[in-house]
Amino acid sequence: MVPLGVPALALLACASLLLLLLLWSGQGRNGTRPPGPAPLPLLGNLLQIDVRNLAASFQKLQEKYGPVFMLQLGSQQILVLSGYEAVKEALVDHAEAFGARGPVQISREYGVVATNGERWKQLRRFSISTLRNLGMGKRSIEERIQEEARCLVAALHKTEGHPFDPTRQLSHTVSNVICSVVFGHRFEYDDKAFIDLLSLLRKTIQLVLSPWAQLRTFFPGLMKVLPGPHHKMSSYVNQFLGVMAEEIQRHRESLDPNCPRDFIDCFLIKMEQEGENLASEFHQKNLTVTILNLFIAGTETVSTTLRYGLLLLLRYPDIEAKVQEEIDRVVGKNRSPCMEDRNQMPFTAAVVHEIQRFADVVPLGLPHFVTADTEFRGFTIPQGTVVFPFLSSVLNSPQHFETPKKFNPGHFLDENGAFKKSEAFLPFSAGKRVCLGEGLARMELFLFLTTLLQNFRLKTLQDRKEIDISPEMYSGGKRPRPYQLCVVPR
């Protein structure tokens, strides 16, 4: 054989690389695969998205490829569902195929959020039943929220009308509701252990929402060797789980099986009932991670939504005044608002819904996972595909909301001023994996907001027309921009 010269070898290498690129870009791209940009070897579509703002990237790709499109990140295929119809069809009509949980950075092996199969079924069934028995959706949990709302009002009176950032107060208030359910008691806002716990939780969530977490999900091998803050995730989670283990031990030492006080007691009793069952899902690891799941779901999203809501009301004082008029007429000033009042307060209910819609704090939803090769809208979706229900595209649908980019409570009011539901209102997602704390979150948002506006007027030192209500975008979430407000007793 005649040896090839350097130019010939270079030409052959270029031809081989070009052939590889063509084969890769055409891989699986037949008539049954959803449309999407051609991936590159190893990187997939990483260069065609902004990992710092996945919501904006998904929006642009939706406009080009339609409501169902496919990406590839590393070796992982990603299906993105946009718009109410596609999300509902997948998560509700095809619930079995699309109902598994996709990769979540926090403790994938244990707990109720990130697991699948029998473990998830048992833990979710137990959690829903226990939370209901502890008062979820009932008068008892409502009274806990009302008590905490009064504590928040007392804390805000101490600001004496001076400007402050409400982040800390709202986080402590909302988290205390979860504490009362999980631990059986609340904390004072200046309790050092409570402050340290919430600081740890905040750092964990900030990392979960960062580009580092997204890259770690889809390029796990590479991110193991690359330096970066993503390596702190395990440390944060382990510190939180260590605190929970100490609390569980205190509960175990004072447990009365005939009189459970809270979620931890109920879980410990279930552990004892399971006895020597080696296949039981009721053990310490699942308990500690489930508590972590409840804290993240029950603290961050609600407190962020409330913080966004106060910013929106600062920007639109006419809406604030109209809510307060309704509160004064229905509730008055001599008792706390209750959930029964909501039926007589259509404008306030519409404002709360519109705050959730506009805030859109979980724009990507949590990822799902296709459990078997599935036919969907004429496409074949391979088993193992990660699915993102792009909830932002649902909450901002021009087909369902007249002015989706504007804060407009009229989206939830009919021509007579009565409250109007919208099928596209899916801030808690849909289907088998709908947020298990949805009922609690709805109660908190209504009761905290109405109690605050019953007691205070919101003031700002800047021109209201200059208040920026556009969100700060993170890789996996949205947050209101930092701001300061004053609360003046009414």
Automatic annotation (TrEMBL):
Keywords: Endoplasmic reticulum, Heme, Iron, Membrane, Metal-binding, Microsome, Monooxygenase, Oxidoreductase, Signal
Gene Ontology MF terms in the entry: arachidonate epoxygenase activity; heme binding; iron ion binding; oxidoreductase activity, acting on paired donors, with incorporation or reduction of molecular oxygen, reduced flavin or flavoprotein as one donor, and incorporation of one atom of oxygen
Main location, first listed in the record: endoplasmic reticulum
Cofactor requirements of the protein: heme
Pfam name, any one: p450
CC annotations in GO: endoplasmic reticulum membrane
Location in or out of the cell: Endoplasmic reticulum membrane; Microsome membrane
Any GO BP annotation: xenobiotic metabolic process
Secretion signal, residue range per the UniProt entry: 1-28
Superkingdom, taxonomy of origin: Eukaryota
Binding site for heme: 435
Family that this chain belongs to: Belongs to the cytochrome P450 family.
Name of this chain's protein: Uncharacterized protein
Organism listed in the record: Salvator merianae
